[in-house]
Amino acid sequence: MCFSSSLTPAFCNNVVDLKICDPPGVEEMAAWVGKNRHLGAGSGLQALGFQVDLRRRTEAAFEVVYWHLKQHLHEENKAVLQFSPIFVEYLLYKVARFSQQFESKDETLLEQGSITIQDQAGR
């Protein structure tokens, strides 16, 4: 149970890989994300349109994303990605980082992506 400590998910992932502690379950990871909703995964959920103003909403949103990916990813892809609650937290962190790169005062992430696709199609 490394998530009951103050360790970050990235460090805990390493500790889990080394078999020093057990990996967190979905509920445990959701609780960590809910408690730390101001960090990357919470921002990723917000970028995807979830409301993360309350801890329980954030926990529920994390679980929705986890179970959706678990249901819809092919088994081969899950194996390659080492799909787990830690993976989903890391993915959401990356969503937040990626969306921040495209944000500007006047354009949303979706608008920015559409412009990029149109520019590439015109070449």
Structure description:
By secondary structure, this protein is mostly helical. The chain has helices at 9-17, 26-35, 40-47, 55-72, 75-81, 85-102, 109-121. Helix 2 packs across helix 4 (55-72).
Output the structural class. Answer: mainly alpha
Taken from the alpha-carbon principal axes, the silhouette is globular
Total E-strand runs: 0
Rg over C-alpha atoms, rounded to the nearest angstrom: 16 Å
Strand content: under 5%
Main sheet summary? none
Helix-strand pattern: HHHHHHH
Helix content: 55-70%
Overall pLDDT metric? 81
Q: How many helical elements?
A: 7
* Low-confidence residue ranges: none
- How far the N terminus sits from the C terminus, by CA atoms, comes to 52 Å
Task: Compose a concise summary of this entry.
The chain is an all-alpha fold and 123 residues long. The protein is built from 7 helices and no strands.
How does the SSE layout of this entry go?
Layout: H1 9-17, H2 26-35, H3 40-47, H4 55-72, H5 75-81, H6 85-102, H7 109-121
Characteristic key phrases:
mainly alpha, 123 residues
